[in-house]
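Hi W.,

Here's what went into the run:
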Amino acid sequence: MQLVLSWPVRIIVIGLLLFSVLVDGAGYVYRIVNHYPLTGQVPGLPPRYGDWQLYVHRGLDLQGGTILEYRLTGLPPGRSASDVQRQTVDVINKRVNQLGVSEPDIRTEGSDRIVVGLAGISSARAQEVIGRTARLEYTKWVQADKAPAGRETSAGWKPQFTGLTGDMITNANAALDQNGQWAVNVQFNSTGSDLFGKLTTDNVNACPQTDCPQRHLGIWLDLTQDDIDRWEDPARVAQVTKSPDQGGKLLTNPYTIQPILGGQAQITGGFDAQTAKDLATEINSGALPVTLTILQSTDVGATLGADSVKKSLGAGLLGLVIVIIFMVAYYRAPGLLASVALLFYAGLVLALFKAIPVTLTLAGMAGFILSVGMAVDANVLIFERFKEEMRAGRTVAAAVDAGVRRAWPAIRDSNVSTLITSVLLFGFGSGPVKGFALTLIVGVACSLISSIIVTHNLLAIFLTFGGLRQPAVLGVERGRAV
Amino acid sequence: MWNVAELSEGVTVGAAEARPAARTRRFDVISRRNWFFGLSLLIIIPGIVSMAARGFLLGVDFQGGTEFFLNFKNSPSTAQVEAAVAQENVHGTVQAGSNGVFIVRTGVLTPAQQEQVRGDLIKKVGPIDEGNYRAASVGGVVAQETVFYALVALVSASFLILLYLAFRFRRVQGGWRSGFQFAGSALLALLHDVFLLTGVFSILGKVLQLRIGEIDSFFLTAVLTVVGFSVHDTIVVFDRVRENLIVSQRLSFEQVVNLSIMQTAARSIITSFTVVLVLVALLLFGGDTLKGFVLALLIGIVSGTYSSIFNAAPLLVVWRRWQAMR
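Here's what came out:
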């Protein structure tokens, strides 16, 4: 046990303490560094360091919102499931962006699932946006005297539906063209090929030599006849011709270089890898590659979770205070030191939750509160052993040492078995169970540090003051000061 | 100084062997073991009967379906809500909580259907507190999976703990065979807690028709936590047995086990007591959503401490005797 009391270990503990204080108090550190007042609203909170933002990430069951789990069915033949799954996530991401939700959580689960978590949105609204099949429309351009110019479109021309829609596209993907530039390849089915061939031929024939508005094909999402009928309104045209992620409907309005008869179109011009991929995704999302079936949904009101947080945290704090009172009353000075270690433990766990970050759910919070109780366990084991060794007539220092050493196998074995269950829970569980398991794993790891290393060190330092080695102070029946 | 220290060490070794035995209150758990086994069975058997005959009150995530948590501002009567739900034609059941809170269970509904039902209920019964609203819908497939993975997690956790403990106790006289005796007894104590807890919840949910006895993901989490906790307590006792077998070679196995129980009982009870303190605080003052979970932990941890002291160690004695007789 000499190792535990060595300086390298102490320095690590002090490092962890500094880490906890800085992370737990990140908001205050930020205020002080930027000369903001310590209370009240301050811009830029929670503090952000690159992509890393320090605050307690609350699960949707605590902050209110919706969680939807989908299963992907009707996968297009000949494409890998994981590829389709990824593409679907991209599409859902695009659609969800329109909702303006902060930090939407969209991830794959298993080989055929997608889980979507959205804060502050009802599941009905979320499903409406995600499950909607955006209609992709191709338009040609016809003359209209009063038509204003829009993004990528010319004054004096308005769009007209051609009957070519997203249903006729089998696939769109980003690729490099023969000149090494990023382009989007679009593939049509046979009906689409015929229509597209005819449209592009007409386009080129309209003005064979030069670029003119008629030689363009507009590609739109959800363009309606109503939009076209009101093409005189400049504000509306400006809005409609914005890109979809800015609330508009125009994806792109490419120029037709030559008639395309084989059903293989290529859109080029000014793309980089990202924008080409984005456009391909958007063309594809007109026709989602799969059918989304809802497996489960959860919808939580905004105050329900907040109420649970308040109550449970209050109860947790109350529990902590009771435990501390009990420990001090029963074990005296060692109990007080163990309580200090317990506060260190709580601070460290919270800092890790913020830094990793662990998303705190209701079950996770219960796990955290419970682990406070468990963190005491190792201390109780050591102190009981310590008392026994004192009764057996050992010196204080020898009893502390023997107490820690002899309690260690039991502490090790019991914590390993808890880790076994929590790792399995993490592996097999879903949603709330996973959150609980993760907090428990973090909790067990931290409790080992706090109960063995911190308490033992505090006790060793405490015992260097000879006057304090009194049986009454140490809470033992019979002891010998050396 | 050195001499004194040495002397005191010498005395200690002798004392550590005899003194705790003399000082700790002598209460013979081992010879009364059948009473303790009986007490356990007294609770477990009705539980098992209830599980077999009545099953469980399953939560929405284990059964599949949709559950609404509605907080009507006008505190309507249960009959009023029931009448409104009946008109929806969604096979709904209504359960009343306190202060206008109602829980409505239906078959699986899509979010759009949920919105419809919610809107209709508001129209027919009265306004709800929008912030205090909750709806959860779980399809049958997911529910089955949840149950399946729960069982897999439970079985594999038990199995791994068995292996780990056998490994840890393999150095006890008798080798791996002894190791498995220790691990097996711990596992039986663990199963005791699992059956007691699920049995009590079956009785609470099905026989007494209490909502707190509902079996859901939270309950599953509680069971697995209890498994970990119960093994904690058992390990502490067995660790002492392992140590005392080396230190006190003059005592019989029964005496060693009994001595170990007495030496560790204070620690087991104190630890459980601190956790129980936290849990009682949570049960009394925590959020409603967690009540069932906390109750499960409370029952499980009390049971876990009991089984470690009064079942696990005596089982070890029984097992050893039985093996010796063969």
